[in-house]
From TrEMBL:
Keywords recorded for this protein, A-Z: Repressor, Stress response, Transcription, Transcription regulation
GO biological process: negative regulation of DNA-templated transcription
Residue ranges annotated for the Heat-inducible transcription repressor HrcA C-terminal domain, each copy included: 115-336
GO molecular function: DNA binding
Family, as annotated: Belongs to the HrcA family.
InterPro entries: GAF-like_dom_sf, HrcA, HrcA_C, WH-like_DNA-bd_sf, WH_DNA-bd_sf, WHTH_transcript_rep_HrcA_IDD
Function: Negative regulator of class I heat shock genes (grpE-dnaK-dnaJ and groELS operons). Prevents heat-shock induction of these operons.
The organism of origin for this protein: Rhodobacter ferrooxidans
Alphabetized PANTHER family for the sequence: HEAT-INDUCIBLE TRANSCRIPTION REPRESSOR HRCA (PTHR34824:SF1)
Protein known as: Heat-inducible transcription repressor HrcA
Keyword Transcription regulation: yes
Gene behind this protein: hrcA
NCBIfam families: hrcA (TIGR00331)
Amino acid sequence: MSDGARILSEMNDRSREVFRRVVEGYLASGDPVGSRTLTRSLTEKISAATIRNVMQDLEYLGLLDSPHISAGRIPTQLGLRMFVDGLLEVGTVAAEDREKIEATMGSNESDVPTLLDRIGATLSGITHGASLVLTPKHEAPIKHIEFVSLGPDRALVVLVFADGHVENRVFTPPPGQTPSSMREAANFLNALAEGKTLTDLRKTVVHDMARRRQEIDSLARALVESGLAVWENAGEQSERLIVRGRANLLEGGAEAQDFDRIRSLFDDLERTRDIAEFLELAETGEGVRIFIGSENKLFSLSGSSLVVSPYMNADRKIIGAVGVIGPTRLNYGRIVPIVDYTAQLVGRMISERGKG
């Protein structure tokens, strides 16, 4: 049992209701919630003094905080985490929101990245946050691999897929490469590649390289290993992060520190080359995941939350993800089902089009 779940289970009904009302009030207004406000909404009629005592206890537990000298409280990151895990009531997707998402999906656009771009824009508009969409990798079986020397310190790896798709990636090869070592490296990979996707091939190569180190020339082995590093470097044509709705995060009278936080967020996004880490956040569990503040390891920013869900192809394999990012004061109950619904529709669309 997590610390949050343990604390929640040990609370009495009064403390639990005060805590829930404070968090819900804060998520709705963005303002600290005071004891006088709670006396008007609590199920049990108790005095403001009693409520203040309960709030002080919750603050001592690290669940609430006093941002100013005022008597109002706001939830801490731990408090938000505990609320999301144990008290959050998730609604259903409103008919109007569902229609907007489905209208985007129903587009005749045949290019999947372009369609996902539109979906990201729609998701951003509906949630009033920034949307993130990780487009699917190209996962067709590989037909042929070739290494081409472009100079002493530059080489090209050419990947030809069974469906006719071709990808070229430039990288820096190990020093001392010769035409024969490049041929040997390509022959080694092609012998393993038939019928395998790039993901499958990576796993096979790592295993076979360890088993057959004596059989493959050291130069060719170094070339294969450096080529693998290139394939694993996301952010190429095969994998792209689409971000829409940056301006939404600055609405509502943002203060100077908010601009700094938002700028930091997008600096992190643009610097992050290993976009696969974003997908790994979603792969650790099927369905929607919520990352609050500094729990979100992809961003150094601590003042934001990420609601993310993976989407799958027809083989139930995770190939991408959709998410919404905003301040920690997100309407989680509304946004969680929207992200979930969008991810399911995107997966269905990808499967029907035979992509991924």
